[in-house]
Amino acid sequence: MGVLRVKSVEQSISDTEAPEHRLRKDLSALDLTVFGIGVIVGTGIFVLTGRVARETAGPAVALSFVAAGIVCALAALCYAEFASTVPVAGSAYTFAFATLGELPAWIIGWDLTLEMMLGASVVAVGWSGYLTSLLASLGVPLPGVIAGEGAVFNLPAALVVLLLTGVLVLGIKLSSRFNLIIVTIKLAVILLVVVAGLFFVRGANYSPFIPPSKATPAVEGLAAPLIQVLFGITPVAYGVLGIFSAAAVVFFAYIGFDVVATAAEETRDPQRDLPIGILSSLGVCTVLYVAVSLVVVGMQPYRQLSEAAPLADAFKAVGQTWAASLISVGALVGLTAVVMILMLGMSRVMFAMCRDELLPSRLAKVHPKYRTPYVITIIMGVVVAALAGLVPLSTIAELVNIGTLFAFAVVSIAVVILRRTRPDLPRSFRTPLVPLVPVLSVLACLYLMLNLPVETWIRFGAWMLLGLLIYAGYGYRHSRLSEQRRAATR
Question: How far apart, in whole angstroms, are the C-alpha atoms of residue 27 and residue 41?
């Protein structure tokens, strides 16, 4: 079938050498690791910890972070093999094209675009909220018309997106250096939280570490988790099951390590550096999440933790307001990196799709001086800025999660397929225990997806339907593989 035509690994790699599409190879393993940490450590560590500890897991929230980290690690092992074997921009889109075919690749590319576009917009709105709060505390309140939940146009959110778009256009090395500074500040703040917080930890706050389980109020209608609708299973708060229910929520905190794979073409030694960047960034962030969650629940009884700003409010509760202000600054700086790297990943996925002519190829132009895909970067930057400024995205933020889990499952399946169809390919990194690890990855992703609300599945389906219509109306006929096949039959 034409929609299942596969683009060979060799052709994907040769496309990266075309002069009009060649990107500058400036990134090292350290740069990739910092990119990964920059995008992973964001709202999750500053917000989710308090919410899930209070409502779902209790002090055992650290175990929830471990469980979510294991799910991500299974997928990360699959990403590491693919990224080192097919070091091409596009991440899961490119991997799917080499194994499952053009239509599945389009679906996953369309899915990744949704994930990163909404993710960057949501985080930009959060960035605006932190900035508004910080300025208000300094006696410089922003008018409600241009900032905050009820703003007509969220100006700070739009401006930070446009500023970061400019940074991305000016070169991948400048972007990596900018990100390094931001991540250094962010990690310093987080380490301060851990070290300073240890002086205020009370052992009594850890007891019971796993509170007795209790049934949560039944959620009805479209807000109900799909697993509840399909099987009548109501999520449980606290207890062992509560730990895993919380893992489905804190999974948000890990979204982003897959963005490292989108920078494959701009990496000096992708076969070596990509696996290091993917796995090391995930490992560092898991350790940070566990350490911070243990300290926060030790400083304050879990039922008293703040849902909006648990880290800052925990220090306020023990009289350390200076630390609370510093944490707010760290959160503001940290979210800047998240927005930038999500936009980097989104532009590289769209660049790969345009280069394959599933979208207009003229959008895949590379800047003659900076060697960045500047046209698609600017277009997507304007789109994200408009979304962040105009659309209240809190109700659709879970689309980011379902899109990521879907991509993880596809990559895990694709590893097994490529092992069977192309056993001859050199693999500098090999996923261990294939097919066991990919199968476990798929099952874990499906379980977490089932814990998402029905309305999220409906929105996800509507986005995919729109993507299929675009593919049928444009992508299928204009694809480079279609043109090559027509040329061969003349």
Answer: 20
